[in-house]
Amino acid sequence: MTKVIASGKTVEDAVNQGLAELGVSRDKVEIQVLEQPSKGFLGLIGVKAAKVEVKLLSVPEPVPQPIKPAAQVPQVEATLEGVAAKNPYEEAAAFLKEVAAGMGLDVEVHIKKQRDGHIFNIAGEDLGMIIGRRGQTLDALQYLTNIVANRYSESFVRIVLDAENFRQRRRKTLEDLAERLAGQAIRTGKEVVLEPMPPLERKVIHAKLQNHSQIKTYSKGEEPNRRVVITTK
């Protein structure tokens, strides 16, 4: 209902009646007086009520607003455990420094990239504690360092740990040992069984003697007690 015709003793009464029927306030309507009230003869006979038309004002339709495209949400790089992705080599180096600090050592870690992995060279004083007997501590730290690095990498990474060029010096020691024991096997005609070694050290022995004309090598036993055997062909 947009308009009504209302009546009352006065124009004001008629308007109020119309407003009540439409249920709106006065500022929402347009009012047209159709008939003025009259009192009639001697104010008693032929009394005519006021009549008005109360019409709702037209409400302009809202102008459609252009729809704004949704705000672009910046893409966040995938993370590990809700933390921004970290460099596996930096995390591994930080781990090494923390372990060294726990041993009372202040060290630096120099990272060198190679074709088949990365070499971490540890520099500092009193590194014998980090190297350990025949490199056993260094090997253990290398194992843990690789675990830490691979926690922060989507693809497998390989780190070789070194300190004071221990790996190179140890390799030279093992190669000299291989040649000496090969000579012993030739002289005695008996096979020589070496003490248990980690895989990388056994590999050095095998590689040194693989092209020997009189000697062959193989490994026997189970880790961590696997040994190299040097024997004549």
UniProtKB/TrEMBL annotation:
Residues 168-233 form the R3H domain. Its main location: cytoplasm. Forms a complex with KhpA. It comes from Paenibacillus vandeheii. This is RNA-binding protein KhpB. Residues 5-55 are annotated as: Jag_N domain. It is found in: Cytoplasm. PANTHER family: PROTEIN JAG (PTHR35800), RNA-BINDING PROTEIN KHPB (PTHR35800:SF1). The lineage of its organism: Bacteria, Bacillati, Bacillota, Bacilli, Bacillales. Belongs to the KhpB RNA-binding protein family. Has an N-terminal Jag-N domain and 2 RNA-binding domains (KH and R3H). Pfam families: Jag_N (PF14804), KH_KhpA-B (PF13083), R3H (PF01424). The keyword Chaperone applies. It comes from the Bacteria. The gene is jag. Keywords: Cell shape, Cell wall biogenesis/degradation, Chaperone, Cytoplasm, RNA-binding. A probable RNA chaperone. Forms a complex with KhpA which binds to cellular RNA and controls its expression. Plays a role in peptidoglycan (PG) homeostasis and cell length regulation.
